[in-house]
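Usage example:
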Amino acid sequence: MINTQELEKRWFKYKFKSYLLHLIIFVTSIVFILLLFIFVGTDLLKKPTELKKESTNIPKEKKIEKVIIQKTIIKKTPDVKIKKLVEVNLTSIIKNDEKQEKQPLIVEPSFNFISQIESDLAKKSIVQNRQISEKKDIQTQIIEVEKKEPKKTIQKEIQRKQPIQTVEKKRKPIHIVRQNTQEDIKAVIKRFEKNHNPALSLFIARQYYEIKEYKKAYNYALITNGINNDIEESWIIFAKSLVKLNERTIAIKMLKKYIQYSNSYRAITLLGDINSGKFR
Amino acid sequence: MDTELFNSSKDVFLDTVNAKDYIELDRISSIYQSLKESITKPLKMVLLYGKPGTGKSMFLTKLYDDISSYMPTYIYKTPIIDEIEFFKVLAQDMFNMKYDDQLNFTQFMKVLNSSKTEQTPIILLDEAQLYPDILMEKIRLLSDTRKVKFVITLHKTEKEDLIAKEHFKTRIWESIELENASNFELKIYIQKKLMKANCFDTANMFDEKSVNLIHKLTHGNYRESNKLLYTLFDIYESYLTQDKHYKFNQNKVPSKMIEMAAIYLGLLND
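Running the assembly step on the lines above writes:
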C-alpha cells in the first residue's frame, strides 16, 4: 500500500516547484521587456522630440521685410516739392546659425538685422510708424512724415499677396512705393551662403516667387528641400514654380510623391488646383 | 467504485508477457499480420527490433501462441548464452535428442543436415542482443542451411544496430520495427485492456486529457505506461483503504493522481 499522505506532500512540493518555475519565467520576461523598452524605447522616443524641436524652431523664423515708403510732400508754394524717401527695414528676428553645422535645423535670431534697422532708423527722422499686419508672415510699418503742407499723398506698395493700402491723413493721399527688393534678397543670399540655413533659402525662394522670378524660386526651393525635405512650404513653392515654368507634369509628379510621403493637406489642395486648372 | 475494482484494474497492468493480454490495435495488428505472413515464406531470418517496452516480447509470444499449433516453433525468451548449452537445448527441443555429453556447433550442424522434417522449424529468440558475437555468427550459419528459420528480437540501440548490420545484413529477409504508441493508440490500449478485464467503470475514467498526460510522461511506451497505470490504481486503492468514504471523481482521472503516480515512479521529480 502506498503512503498517500507522504505522496501528496511530494506532489504539493512538485506543484510549487513547477509554478515557481513558471513564475520565474514570467517575471524574467516582464523584466526583459521592460529593459528592452527602456533601452530601445527611449531611443525611439528621442528622435520624435528632436524632430519636434526642429519643427517648432522653423516657424519661429521670421522674414526680413523691407518696406520702402515714398512720401511726397507738397508745400503751399507750388514750386517747392519735397520728396523724401524713407526706407524702413522691418526685420524680424532671424535665427543664429552658428550652431547649425551640428544641428542643421536649429536656428537662432540674428542681431545683425536689428542693428541695421537701428542705423536706418537713426538716419530718418520725423517719421511716424504705422504697423500693418497681414496673417502671420507679413509685417509692415508705415511711418508718417510730419505734415507741414496742406496736401500730402502717400503711396504705399507692399510686396507679396498683401494688397496695396493707401492711408489718408488729413485728406492727403500717401503713396508707398516698394524698392530694393533684389538688394534685400542678395543680403539674405549672402547670409544663406555662410550658414546654409534652410529657413533662409526658403525665404529667398518665397521672395523670388513673389517677384515672379520663378526659376530662382524653383532653385532655392530645391536647395531648401535638399537641406530639409520636411518643410511643407518649400515643396509648395517648388511645385508652384514648376507650374509657372510650364513644367506642370513634373510639378504634379513631385507633389504626388510629397503627398505620399507627408500627406500634406496644402499639397493635396494645390495638386487639386493644378489638376483642375485653378492654378496656372 | 470500491477497493476491489481498483485492485482488479491494477492487476491488468502488471508487467507480464502473456499472449492472452495482447491488445489488438490497428497499426500493431497490421505489423503482426505481416510478421505472420513472412513466416510462411522461404526466409532465413526475421529481425524484430525496437526500443525497450515497445512490445517485442509480446509480439514474439503472441506469434508463438498463434503458430505453434500448426508449425514446429520453439521460443527462447531468456537468452542461452553458453554455446554448448544452446545447441544441446536446440537438439533436445527440435529432435528430442538428449545429450549427456557436450554438443558443439559442428555436431549440431550434422544433426540438423541429416534431419528430415516436413516443415522448417522456427526458432524464436528474444533479447538476441545478449547473445555473444561468436554464437550469433553460428546462428547466422545455421540459418544459411535453410533447415531452420530464426525470428529474433533486438533492442534498437546503436550497439544493437551494429550487431544487426554485421550478422544479419545479408540474411535478414524481413526486418520489422516496433514503435511506442501514439496518444490515440494509448487511449485504446488502456481502455481495451481494462474492458477485457471487465473494469468498465475505470476504463471510462480515461478521457483525452488524462491519456495525453500519461503519454507525455511515458512517451507512449507500453511498459512505462503499464507501470504508471499500475501505480495509479494502487494509489486509488490506498486512498480507499485508508478512508472508505474517500470521494473522488468517477468520470475522470485527475491530473493530480497521474502526477502522484509519476512522482512515485520517479518519472517526475518532486
